[in-house]
Design a protein that fits this description.
By secondary structure, this protein is an alpha/beta fold. It has two domains: about 220 residues, FAD/NAD(P)-binding domain; about 210 residues, D-Amino Acid Oxidase, Chain A, domain 2 (2-Layer Sandwich), CATH 3.30.9.10. It has a nine-stranded mixed sheet. A six-stranded mixed sheet has the order 10-3-2-14-21-20. Strands 1-13-12-11 form a four-stranded mixed sheet, with no helix packed on it. Helix 5 links the parallel strand 6 and strand 7. Helix 1 runs parallel beside helix 11 and helix 2 crosses helix 11. It is globular and about 70 Å long.
């Protein structure tokens, strides 16, 4: 009979969410034995596919408050670590060709709540100078640019037909791998243990028993499941299930040898739906194919692009979360080899210079992808389950890295019985008992998916 290792707390899942939860659970001065378990090396699965972006642009106040807290923590870590995580403040530039942006403005006011009046700044031609002079300054609020001349000066690579740009200023990117290393170092310095092993069984007796596939045994009174797309696989051991689904979303990174995108350009999002730029012959072939005919029809908006690569920012990252098909998670997800050309042609609508890469991507390119594990309303689930002593950090969709620190802190607050922030209950399973809150989410057509 193998010997059982007792721990005060066990976290299953060493992606960025699990690592953050482990770090915040060891931050108290009281000595605790905390164990972090994963079958893979830390940050080697879903978290390895992160876009490494952050933004406090969300369609409702709950997520805005939650992510604002996450950004506060990231900024603190950046300062504490001597800028090790390379946190930038370039913002998000949301572009549209619409004349009427009243619906977009309404969404901004909803997301920022009572702070909206102070945060949203309309930049018409008369105020163009104050906007341009602020680009290296403010990292708060939102600039709504209505003057096309200003847009051309600030975003010279954009499609000339863009009529409005909404510049989210509390946004940018960072190095999620360095963030994970920083958090792991803190975790280990406080006595935390990282265990490599696949969970074979979880059962509840007087305490929670975890058996690994190599027969090692662990016991604890507090268990956190932060297993990304495999969360329901793990929870099935204790007859629990979360209302989540997995969709595989792909991205493309490549070296911008043509310098199609200015190095200083913010993370850029084309909000408008579009027809992909196919030739008439290509469109006809796609329309006749049952599998690919959707690519010949109207595609959703929110295709996005950002530069990367240290101070030179020589690489481009393109993403387009248009897949809506749920799938069972796999350790080796199968990627669509047509995606690079699809996302490239889609992104070229906002940045026409990208057309120079049609059918001729640089040799230095990396298609990749990972699962968005999400609820229908695209809010995470963080907090206790019905099984006593079991907690989850789950459904972090495409915002896991930016939310990780706030999610880890919130998980620790639930476990420790600490004072909970205003967003806590609406980010737990308790929200499903709040009919008014859920109805408001249902009425909103925007889920904040990007």
């Amino acid at each position: 009979m193998p010997q059982t290792t007792a721990a005060d707390m066990i976290i299953i899942g060493a992606g960025i969410a699990g690592i953050a939860a482990a770090q915040y659970l060891t931050r108290k001065e009281t000595a605790r034995k905390v164990v972090l378990i994963d079958a893979l090396a830390p940050m080697s699965f879903t978290s390895a596919q992160s876009g490494d972006n952050y933004r406090n642009w969300w369609p409702h106040r709950t997520m805005t408050g939650f992510i604002d807290r996450g950004i506060d923590l990231l900024e603190g870590i950046a300062e504490d670590s001597g800028e090790r995580i390379r946190l930038t403040h370039r913002g998000y530039a949301l572009a549209t060709r619409q004349d009427d942006i009243s619906e977009l403005l309404c969404g901004l006011h909803t997301g920022y709540g009572t702070d909206a009046a102070d945060l949203i700044r309309i930049r018409d031609r008369a105020k163009a100078g104050s906007y341009l002079s602020s680009l290296n300054g403010k990292h708060t609020g939102v600039d709504v640019i209505t003057d096309r001349g200003t847009i051309r000066r600030a975003f010279p690579a954009f499609d000339p037909e863009v009529r409005h740009v909404i510049h989210i200023r509390r946004a940018g990117d960072f190095d999620s791998y360095q963030l994970s290393q920083y958090l792991l170092e803190k975790f280990r310095a406080r006595g935390g243990s990282l265990v490599r092993g696949k969970v074979a069984e979880i059962c509840k007796d007087r305490s929670l028993q975890i058996r690994l596939s190599d027969r090692r045994m662990f016991s604890t009174d507090r268990l956190v499941v932060a297993a990304g797309p495999f969360v329901n696989v793990l929870l099935a051991h204790i007859a629990e299930r979360l209302p989540v689904r997995n969709t595989l979303q792909q991205k493309l990174a490549f070296e911008d040898v043509r310098e199609a995108v200015p190095r200083e350009q913010p993370f850029s999002v084309d909000l408008d739906p579009q027809f992909i730029d196919w030739s008439p012959e290509e469109r006809a072939l796609l329309a006749a194919d049952e599998v690919y005919r959707h690519l010949a029809a109207t595609m959703p908006g929110k295709i996005h692009c950002r530069t990367d690569g240290g101070s030179q920012r020589r690489w481009l990252h393109l993403g387009w979360a248009y897949n809506r098909e749920s799938s069972e998670p796999s350790r080796e997800p199968v990627l669509d080899d047509t995606f690079p050309e699809i996302v490239l042609r889609g992104a070229a609508r906002l940045i026409p210079a990208l057309k120079g890469y049609y059918d001729r991507l640089p040799s230095m390119n990396r298609p990749h992808g990972g699962y968005y594990t999400m609820t229908d309303e695209n809010l995470p689930i963080i907090g206790p389950l019905q099984t006593e002593g079991v907690f989850v950090v789950a459904a972090l969709s495409g915002f896991g890295t930016m939310a990780a620190c706030a999610a880890g802190e919130l998980c620790a607050q639930w476990i420790e019985g600490a004072h909970l922030p205003a967003y806590a209950k609406h980010l737990s399973l308790e929200r499903y008992g709040d009919e008014e809150f859920m109805k408001a989410l249902t009425l909103s057509g925007d889920r904040g998916v990007l």
